[in-house]
Design brief:
Layout (H helix, E strand, L loop, with lengths): L1 H35 L14 H34 L14
Helix pairs in contact: 1-2
C-alpha cells in the first residue's frame, strides 16, 4: 500500500510541477514581449544574443519556473494530505507513518 501511495505521489507531484512550469513559461514569454517588445531568446547561449538579454532571460525564467513549480508542489502536497490524511511519502518527518 505504501508503495502505491509513493507512486501516486510521484506522478501527482511531477504532473503538477510540469504543468506549473509550462504555465509560468507562457506567462513569462508574454511579459518579456510586453517589457522588451521582442521575443524571448530561443537560445541564450547563442553568441548573437546580447549578454544582458541572455542573463536577464536566464534569471527571469529560472525564478518564474522555480517559484511556479514550488507553489504547485506545495498545493499538490496539501491536496494529497487532505485526501489521504497524511503527508506524501517524500515529505513525512522521521517517525511519521501513513
Amino acid at each position: 500500500m505504501a508503495q502505491d501511495s509513493s507512486k501516486v505521489w510521484t506522478v501527482f507531484s511531477l504532473v503538477s510541477a510540469l504543468g506549473a512550469a509550462a504555465v509560468a513559461k507562457k506567462g513569462l514569454d508574454k511579459a518579456w514581449q510586453l517589457a522588451t517588445g521582442k521575443q524571448p531568446p530561443e537560445n541564450p547561449a547563442d553568441p548573437d544574443v546580447e549578454i544582458w538579454e541572455a542573463v536577464s532571460w536566464a534569471v527571469a525564467s529560472g525564478i518564474a519556473v522555480g517559484l511556479a513549480r514550488m507553489i504547485a508542489q506545495r498545493k499538490a502536497a496539501s491536496y494529497y494530505a487532505r485526501s489521504t490524511g497524511h503527508l506524501p511519502p517524500d515529505l513525512r518527518k522521521d517517525g511519521q507513518r501513513a
